[in-house]
Amino acid sequence: MARSAKRTAPAATLHAAKKARTAPARRDEAAELDGDESEVNEFEGFGGSDGMMSGEEDALDDEDGSLEALDVQESDEEDEEDSIAGDGQDEGSDMDDQMISDDGEDLYANLDREMGDQEDEEDDEDEDEEEEQDDDGGWETVGTAPSAPLIAPAAELDKKRKAKAARKLSPAELRALAFAELTASPISNVLSSQVSALLDPLTPAAPSSSPLQPVLKDLHTHITNLPKQKAVSLDGLRKKGRVVPPVEGHNGKWAKMDLAWEMPRSEDLRVTGAWAWGGGYKEMGEYVVEIAVAMPQSLLQQKDYLFPRFSVKVAHYLVILASLLPSSLGPVTTSYFPLSGSLGYALDIRAAVKKGEEKVGLAKAKGAVLRIRIVAPASVFPTNKLAPTGNVVRPPSLLASTEGDNPQLDPASLPPTPLHSTALHLSTLSLSTTHLKYHHSLATSYPAYTSSVRLLRNWAQRRGYDASLGLTSDWWAWCVARSLNVGGKSAAGDVASLAAGGEAWAGWRKAVEWLASANWTEGIWFKSMTDETYSKDEFRRAFKGKPLFVDPTGTVNLAAGIELSTLETLKQDAKETISLLLAGIEDERKFESAFAREVRVTERFDNFARIVVPANPKVDADAAVDHPNSLSYLVSSINSTLTRALGTRARAFRITLPATPPLSTSAPAPKTPSAVTLSLGLILDPSDSLRLVDQGPSAEDEEACADFRAFWGAKSELRRFKDGAIVESVVWDEPSADGLGPQRSTIVRRIVEYILGERHGVPATNIDFFAGAMDHLVVEPYAIRRQIYLEDSVATGKGFTNVITAFDELVKETKELPDLPLGVASVQPCSPGLRYSSTFTPAARRLKDFERLPHSMRHIEPHDMLLTLESSGRWPDDLEGIQKIKAAFLSKIGEGLEATRSVLRAELVFDVDARSNDDNVALEILTATGWAFRARIFYDRSQLLLEEREEQLGDAADSSTGASPLDLYQQRFVHAPKHHAAISTLQHHFPFFSLTVRLFKRWVSSHMLSGHFADEQLELLVASVFIDPATTFNPPSSGATGFARVMERLATWKWRDEPLLVPIYTFTSAVTSGRRAVLPTTKKAQAVSNFQELRLAKPNIDEHAWVIATEEDVEGTVWGVETNKVVAVRIRGLARATSATLEEGVVKGGLVVEQLFSPPLADYAFLIHLDASRIPRHFQALAPEPAALASRSRSSVLSGSMMGDLDEEDDDIRVGWDPVADFVDQLNCLYPSVFLLFHSEHGSPVIGGIWHPSGESPRAFSVGLSFPVKPVAAEEGKAKVVLDKKAIFREIERVGKGLVVKVEETKR
């Protein structure tokens, strides 16, 4: 391909900066050439230690393919010392002495030399002419690498600002300025120490000081002096017992071709890769040193650019070289390491010195792995043959039709093979050397460049980005290089760079910001160092719809072989990291979230699937011609299919293949499996993912409609919508199995299952999804729902709408009641069922023949609400009188509601255990449609009276009864309504909050922790996950992911040492403005201070183990008085086990979600077994007993027990009755300091108990012990007694007669 003779001018901004350095007086003149750019660009250039580039066009040497760049020496002495020498002949350099091998050849390819021969600098007049040329027609020509921006004096900056006309900045520019200010700002000493501590174990010894130098020299000498080997084929090597890596063409006719082997030329063996330019990276204690060995030109032919000729010769050369390694390496192990795409394999060499033996050879460089790659020498492949639009792999159908012939092929008729062309370019020594020099010059210009690359790579690896996705080690270096504004024009406000910040942290932030805004499909270019090797149009045509990221030479697409979906996921991760960096939290927390926190797939993705496909699928061979194998083509096709099928439902997704393991050179290759498992991670849009209809093209566009029908198959149908549009559509409204209703949350799963089966023949049984697997746990069995509910809210898909509608109707009727002394001014809901957070979806009960239901299915859950009456001055001034007035009003309201006939029953209920000045009266309402409500009256003056009473009594006010009447009043009438409103608002912002909190409550109950945590506590904990300012993820868009994150929060929260801060009341303003919600600074400081005081005052943590502070409760003690350190430790241990089991089951397969909700009963000291048929909520148990649900015994649960009268009728409808909870409360009152009980509120027939440590210890006998004791052997003449456990078990059975089956002590 002939190169264009057109000369491209450097960017005006570059020359403006260069003139600023060489001639400050000419700044204004240069700035006029770029008048439309931001004023920041006037002071940002790319000159530096490399010297400034002249306008002379770079040339591509046709002989060896290396790039030549112009090197202009600075006139001043300091710049001359810093500039890169033209020929690398600095004799005084210690590094140069170590880089030169024994035979005088440079293993490091003269890194201190420019990327080409030095040429004379043109005069300023010619330079000025080129500045004025329009560069829109081609790539900008710049130096080899960017250098430090020139910082103008403050006065000069001010002058320039005043000279320019002010213009309004766009939102994107404002965001860029905000982030630039953040990037340029100094970091704290603590953060700097954290960054250094992270980088230390990642940074290998520099080449100049590495003990590898003599090893590399010996290796170079040995390889370049090897004798010529006898010609042999790949099959011949196999017969000799050699392992041949499975490259393209390793079987068939190519494997039978005898190939010669000769030693490489001395100058064709070079150290390349990241370690050579200082960017080495330690991973699990190892770092890779790449060595490029160019095959002798005599072994290659010009037509070897046609695959698989070159790959076969490379494999042959590598296998023989692996058998000829020098003994100077010492004991080593060798293996073939798979490279990405069509690059084939490299040879890995590791030290194999046993422990205690002397370290020799390679073992002296701890952790070093030599990776030898076979490449092509310069000028072997014609440049025009390797164009992105060219063809280097002949289609199989064409080869079959022309077998035995030698036809003249029309290149235009052949499909482009850009992936193979890219692989050939990357397999040339000239391009590898050019890239090496480029990064080396960057590392020289920017001291923090290498550290920034390591930070970015570490950040990415924690999120699962590795070479199996095509993201090689060099990829992250290119991203950092591009983020330095090497390509394109400067963005407004782009004032920060590594040179300005001088910190690895700043460079990493800069790179992440660039990744967050990268547009891969439009194409990303560096400023080219040379003429256009290939035009932009060629790249865009060859990589249409694929990511495009062209290297500085304009030769290869660095993103070739990387799926667009992978880079979009990377972009999404970068956006969330930027959001984290802009959050108003401490830098240390930002660092911990970005680098220290373990990233689990169950937390990161909203849905995760395992897809089993054949290892060697049958595909169209011609269509897969540009892929190394059929599996690679299938994965790429699935990516394209899912991109189109999911559309806006998924913000990003990523398909990951299992990593290809290295092949040992001494052991036979393992048998190839018949199937492989792909991992699909989805990041969903919370609203679009629930969309029922996918609309296609209009019926008038016949061609588009035909394409739509061909893609969707039988699911496509022509529909007319309300706006009159007639379009092709796909509807996803089919109900789920087991009466779970439409289940919009599973639409994405159904789309993936259908389209993979339709387009790629993958059966639904081969696809295992994570999200949705737990949904059945928060729904009663379908058969029971049909039996007890008047209308199944789940099966109909109405969800919580039914109960809210019933509540609104009751409120309307209550407000319209006549003949009330004071009308009802307002009604506030105050119940989990009315804020979408009850474990089970409320549904109207079938009241007809209710008495015929077994006792295990009779529970009716009431929904609390608070009534506010019209104001009046006739309320009494004493608290006891207020309760009597409340009872009278509620009785009158109940009579009025019963008169409307919409209410079946309205009864007053009293709390017999309440104090006289507590709120102790409520109205239980049972509507004719099967809904139950519990109403209380809110009277605001009660708070003032309670405050006056506490002030009068002081510390003596109910000091022995736990929470004071004022605390209970504020909890019920002040904080509870506010909490309800805040949670309802949160649910409207985050659709999957409801399912998450319901799953979490189900988990807490299943592990028998009911009664130790208030509903409000659990809801605040889940809310902290959705509005977490320190997370690097989007808010969860599935209940399963939300549940996984809650488990992680529980497992990592240090509740002993820090409160949980949840800005539940002010998060809306932050979320709507795109910021992260944080607790206001003053309230945060107050919350931390209150927490420290609480821990100092009550170090035993017998209550308020969880301190969850909000804007309305900075002390964090409104909820959770019942939560002590024992249950806090218990739930954290359970969360850790659940999180680990969940991650393993999802990633490896075989997850049984019921196991996550099964309590480990062996942990308890004793178990109380209950009669399941007598538990009204047993139908909600995780595994209800069929016999208990079918029985209809006439014996009463109260008969003969201390829990009620013998003659009490048990067939009446009892709203909210839970005998298990009452039984546990009664036992706690009888033995308050003897044991701790654990039970499930959802009908489990087992109660677990553990003994209090002090109760099990022998003690001296005394009168008035509150528990039975028995004597033990006397010690030193003193009589001792110990807790009589069997007597307590008998007492428990007596108290629970009719409910308790037995009490047993577990074997621990």
UniProtKB/TrEMBL annotation:
Record region (Disordered): 1-150
Alphabetized UniProt keyword annotations: Nucleus, RNA-binding
Gene Ontology CC entries for this record: CURI complex; small-subunit processome; UTP-C complex
Source organism superkingdom: Eukaryota
Keyword Calcium applies: no
Localisation per UniProt entry: Nucleus, Nucleolus
Pfam family, one: Nrap_D3
A GO MF term: RNA binding
Domain Nrap protein, chain residue ranges per copy: 289-443, 450-595, 603-759, 791-988, 990-1159, 1161-1303
Positions with biased composition (Acidic residues): 31-42, 55-106, 117-138
Major location (coarse): nucleus
Family stated for the protein in its record: Belongs to the NRAP family.
Annotated protein name in UniProt: Nrap protein-domain containing protein
The organism of origin for this protein: Rhodotorula toruloides
